[in-house]
Amino acid sequence: MPPELLSGSGRTAARTRRNDGHGSQVFRAGMNDLVFAHIFDVLPSPYMVLDRELRYVSVNRAYEQAVLKQRDELVGRLLFDLFPNEGESGRRLRASFAEVLKTGEPDTIAFIPYEIPRPQSEGGGIEERYWTATHTPMLDDDGAVAFIVQNTVDVTEIVRLKQASTVPSAAVPGELALLRNAREVEEAYQETRSESEEFRRLFRQAPGMIAVLQGPEHVAVFANDSYARFVGHRDVIGLPIRQALPEVAGQGFFEMLDAVYAEGKSFTGEGVRLLIHGEGDEGLSETFIDFTYNPIRDAEGRVTGVFVQGADRTDAIRAADRQRLLIDELNHRVKNTLSTVQSMARQSFRKLPQAQEARAAFDARILALSHAHNVLAERRWEAAGLRVLLRQELSPFSRSQVTMSGPEVHLTARSAIALSMVFHELAANAAAYGALSNDEGELVVSWQVAGEGTGRHLSIAWTETAGAPVSATPLVEGFGMRMLHRVVEGELSGTLSLDLASGGLICRIDLALSEVEEFASTAA
Amino acid sequence: MQAQPHNTARDVAGLKVFVVEDESLVAMQLEDMLFDLGCEVVGLAMRLKRAHDMLDSGMAIDVAILDVNIGGEKIYPIATRLRDAGIPIVFATGYGREGLETEWRVCPVLQKPYSASQIEHSILAVTD
Question: Which pTM value belongs to this model?
Fold first, then answer.
């Protein structure tokens, strides 16, 4: 080992040499030292030695020429003071030094552009040069890194040759191919490194919970911010899951993890109840989560861990519960209100004999409305099927007299109520005066959806065939007729046609599907 | 329901009323009540678009009775047009005054269900 490097006397020695015009014959140290120092100095490629603080301890002549600085301008100074570099190259260089200091192992940068100042005598300014750099640690007696030896190979000329070259890549000389290879390796390494950092950052900040568990004990090796928040910012990393989250024991989750690890099959749960210690919780909190456990496999296909993804659905599920309660309460109240209205009508018109018929019609209308509410309540007011509404209204009549056909159409709550009133008026009319007023008449209700895109429409045909001669009175007049027009033409913006002339009532209703349908039908 | 005789100095008979209401039966009842009061329903729209079309036609209107939610849309664009034209407005809604945006709370609000005499009083309150 050259003592001038280790003793820190390099500075003096360097000055001495320089004063003597780099003469290789001038050395003051002993024979062995002289030989090693000499060899160091005359090595054709640039070498320099840094201490742990990245301060120059020694440089050889090739290095001086490479960086265009004399050694007494270098020795004793910090590398990054002389050659500040906040860019990618500087970062990469620092990382390499740090790696060597940490591991005590050599580290190589295959290809690195690095700018150095050009001396005034050569025009000044900044010159960009390209290097391959090897950093080798020199250990002290305790095995700690005392110095770092850097050997750089200036590949600038090769790079420039390549940049200027117009020869196709197949004709590139061996040196260039080697360089390009080195550069590609370096770029690939950098890319992988930044990609995996990017992924890590994305995972960490993802809104969903993400954790990686390793081994049969499910040791947490990664948990993102969302997961950490969910478990109350407890330290879970490095702990087996049963130890990290002891309160979860007995809730079935650990057993599922065991099964996923053992069988290599993923597992998904939705809205699953989980009691857990959240942040600042005295006791356990009730939560609801959606989660997936996916096995992680190595190159041979063996399961090595479990990838956990989860979403805290507690608020959404609580809100849905509250809404369900409210809707149930609303249904209950609507029913009670309808009964109250019915009762008041009965009391109000009880003493009027001429009002009995009107009262019966009124009762039937209230009931029809109530039935439509039932259908909607069953679906939480989301949608009601056209067929169900019709079946409900026509159920009192003999099946042999009534035929229904048409595709299922999901109606909005609003159009379901409106159409159920229309069907009630038509059915009441048929029962009083039309096809259903005798045993021989027939009623066919058919409907279809036709048209494309926004032009799609629902056509309903209500066709009565009178079995026996029916009353010649205009069938739906007064309230019923007025309501049909109001609902179909006004409220639903559709068209209504009534034909009373052909031995039975034919009623056609045409509605834009967008007016009445709850959601876009999947039918093509 | 029977209209009560009352001793108002003015009455609403002959007034031209514009109605926007999207529930068929509520609209029919309002029509009947206005008819009984001697008013003329010059327009009844159950959709916002239809209401705009009717206003575009330039019909003469003395007073408007407006539901607030019309098929999922708010009535305010129509209300604004009417206010700009100097036509008095009465709102009719199941939500009551709280269901109205603040700037419109100066107008009378009929809470559903309402009676014919409530309609009459509201109309009298906004017409001269």
Answer: 0.56
